[in-house]
Amino acid sequence: MSFSLLVLPALSRLRPLFLLLFVIVGVTGCSSVERQPRVETPRVIRDQPREEVVQLQIFLDGERFGPGVVDGRPGEFTAKALDLYRQARDLPADWEPDLSNLAAFTTYTVGQGDFAALGTMASEPVEIAMQKRLPYTRLSELIGERFHTTEAYLRQLNPGVNFASLSAGDMVKVPNVKRPFYADRFPSQYRRQPPSRGVRRSVLINANTRILEVRDEGRLIAALPITPGSVEHPAPAGEWKVVRAVPWPWYRYDEGVLKRGERTTDFHQFPPGTNSPVGILWAGLNRPGIGIHGTSTPETIGRSGSHGCIRLSNWDAATFYTLVQTGMKVTIR
Fold first, then answer.
1. Are 250 and 25 in contact (CB under 8 A)?
2. pLDDT tens digits for range 248-287
């Protein structure tokens, strides 16, 4: 896997009403490839009512300790996020947050801008490369990612609602997450820390637990679920550094790399978008072709592998963008 970097003017039509600078990053080979083993969830979480699990998930998500998708299912990442939050705050191993005043759900009013963000996706690489953007294709997809959940759970929360028939002004029930992900506001409204703070920070990627930790002078400040490569193409163990963090990257689709690990001249450049194989962010490392990036399929985080890269949900990638700095040390083990 490898990449090349070219700076081009912004494509103003990529995000309606927002003018951004996009950097073309020929990222190759970071699509999902296989399922990963699951870890048993502790009974203390597994036996909670589903609404209480949602409350716990949105609490942890709001503290930057990602539980994965917010869907009330007591998966392994919820347990890991709670354990890491306890460790970060020096709390007892049996500590539980008081969630009595935390609403699990809220309502969202569909806006006209939501429909402007929708589009179509071609199925063949040559046609995808001809698109101006890789957008959301369904309103339920947009709302699901905005509120850190899945389309399936949205349908469960809104029985009888046909998302394809909704109009501007209609309201739907959604998880009450602290920081909804608005793609049209990224990166302009996602404030980053000054470089002076970034040099104190480091990233630890644990391929076994599938967790990305961000530490500030050794203190754990964020933990996010990831997909760290695969058996055939593992994330490269060692000490690395972030060389750049690129919002809205272009993706170099090369079947030679994806199928044989060989870079070829027969490739396609996919434009940026929420449905890009590398999502909304590419944080490249000083190992050619390897980076930390988003994804178009957040429900597969931790469940399917990638070709050596480290995948985050787009909403966690946006969080990571606010924490990452060029030159940050990245340890993969």
1. yes
2. 999 999 887 777 667 888 899 999 999 999 999 999 999 9
